[in-house]
Amino acid sequence: MSVGTETEPWAQPILSAAEVGEFEARIFGGDETQTREWSASGALARSASSAKAWAAMQAAGRALADAVLRDFEGIGGFPKNAGRLLVLVGKGHNGGDALIAAEAILGKYPSVVADFVFVFGEPALRPLARRAWLSLQTRFPERMQVLARRGLSERVTTHQSAHLAVHGEVKRGSRHMEPKAPLACGGEAPTAGSEFFTTGAPYALCLDGVFGFQFRPPLDSGTASVLAAAGALSVGLRAAVDLPSGLGEAGAFRADFTYATGVLKREALGLRNAGRLRYLDLGFFKNANPESRSAERVITAEVLAPLRGWRDPHSDKRAQGHVFVLAGSREYPGAALMCVLAALRSGAGLVTAFVPEAFVSSFAASVPEAIWVGWPETPNGGLALEGEYLLRERLARAGEKRALVIGPGIGRERETQVLVGEVLKTYSGELPVLLDADALQPEFLEKTRGPLVLTPHAGEFRRLSAAEPSDASLRDFAQRVGAVVVLKGPVTRVCDGSPRRDSCLNRGVSGEGSGEREGASALPVYHSLLGGPVLARGGTGDLLAGMIGAQLAREPSAILEASCRAVAWHGLAAEALERAQGAETVRTTELLNYLSLALRS
């Protein structure tokens, strides 16, 4: 059997460039250059497929503009009163998306002007991109300029030059301006592919719409010179449409953000020159289709849908989940406090925290909503083995909706490590358990029974798995330990290796009627692009542990979805914090103040 995205509306497939080509041919009716031509009157020959493709391009371009302007808020906002755009345009859909985005920004800000470079010449534009260009020319002729360039490659002819410049002149509206001298890159003399980029005020935004998923290496020297010249300019934000032109080749476009329109391409993952990845969902996967079973998926904000509605009017605090937290030490008391705060702020009905006795009074005064239980301390201020009875007594009185978080700030003292092992041996299998920080030790994995969630960062993952972080090693490790593994990083990845058959079905993996699990290669990896470098500070992992704990307690039978929901919520709140305050002058716990906003955005 095959389970499509109707069971996971919050996760969309990640496809390779070849798969995207097949997918677009199926939904848009084939190759644009073969199926749609312009008539002599300049009107696009209309058909159901061309109308659908044009609507998709408009949606992509507008979503791109909205996303770019939203990301500008992280550095104080788009300079709407003196903004300049530089748009690098190729032949096809990416160029069209960039043109429509530029049109949307020009329409929003009357003082903004734009410069355009047609890397392969204006005559090379395919029909939909040409339609986007004519729309721009019609609406904003006085606020746009086509920058002249010469002989980019053998594919560029003098016919192109006639469209871009006549006798060395560049045209903006009805005004003519002399082109500036070609920009030298790296101190070298300009090549034949150099552009006449204007000097003066910096560009607020550079949109890279040169190459899309059909690019095949190597990057030709002419195009590389364009990208190098653009890279040498002062630009506030460099945005790649779908993929940075040239992918990871030498001389490829270096983006601050890459905006995947409609489909996240597998080739973008791990590209350092792609910058931060954004997924713009255009609704391509609303219905089940073959792509729904992709082995890689991107988590969307739809995962938060259950938190955006009304609570059951007859529920009580126990129905909202009870989180138990075993955390903290004399060396790291703050980790326990942050974990508890996050669990409280992310919907848990009850939070009971077991922390070293010395901190109970101050923690209770600071966060009175939690139940603080003093745990006997070792001579060095860690959690002592003798306190295990406290956990046993409290768990015995708890309801069914409960989860246990172990690890934030516990340290590596031997007695505390022995305690963790004993707790796992006794209680794992009775309730969902999350292991974080110093509770992530290889020897503990042999003592646990599911349901289990592990939250390592890259270094901890290497220690646990003896492998470098990758999708393949994540799958293998998750299956080997039978856990949901949340591998934290610039792109956080989640994989469910638990042996429960219901989890297997939820992932869209089947044994073709046999009920047997397929190999690790069949396990989907869920990618969260949300968050960003504002999370690169101490304590953000402690917050995430508390948030996952709260979601596990509320949905103890759905640990994959609960984990993905917390990861996405954590990331969206971080982005809201960055837009409001920037990434530099914030405290980790300020993220919690944006959890509510993240649910409503």
Automatic annotation (TrEMBL):
CDD domains in alphabetical order: YXKO-related (cd01171)
Annotated YjeF C-terminal domain residues: 300-601
GO MF, one annotated term: NAD(P)HX epimerase activity
Biological processes annotated in GO: metabolite repair; nicotinamide nucleotide metabolic process
Subunit structure: Homotetramer.
InterPro entries: CARKD (IPR000631), Ribokinase-like (IPR029056), YjeF_N_dom (IPR004443), YjeF_N_dom_sf (IPR036652)
Amino acids binding (6S)-NADPHX: A335, G409, H457, D542
Reactions catalysed, as given in the entry: (6S)-NADHX + ADP = AMP + phosphate + NADH + H(+); (6S)-NADPHX + ADP = AMP + phosphate + NADPH + H(+)
Keywords, ordered alphabetically: ATP-binding, Lyase, NAD, NADP, Nucleotide-binding
Pfam families with a match to the protein in the record: Carb_kinase, YjeF_N
Top-rank lineage group of the source organism: Bacteria
Organism field: Cephaloticoccus capnophilus
Keyword Magnesium: no
Annotated YjeF N-terminal domain residues: 35-290
Gene3D superfamilies: 3.40.1190.20, YjeF N-terminal domain
Record function comment: Bifunctional enzyme that catalyzes the epimerization of the S- and R-forms of NAD(P)HX and the dehydration of the S-form of NAD(P)HX at the expense of ADP, which is converted to AMP. This allows the repair of both epimers of NAD(P)HX, a damaged form of NAD(P)H that is a result of enzymatic or heat-dependent hydration.
UniProt similarity note: Belongs to the NnrD/CARKD family. In the N-terminal section; belongs to the NnrE/AIBP family.
Binding site residues for AMP: K488, G489, P490, V491, T492, G541
Cofactor names: K(+); Mg(2+)
Presence of the UniProt keyword Transmembrane in the record: no
Documented EC number(s): 4.2.1.136
Official protein name in the record: ADP-dependent (S)-NAD(P)H-hydrate dehydratase
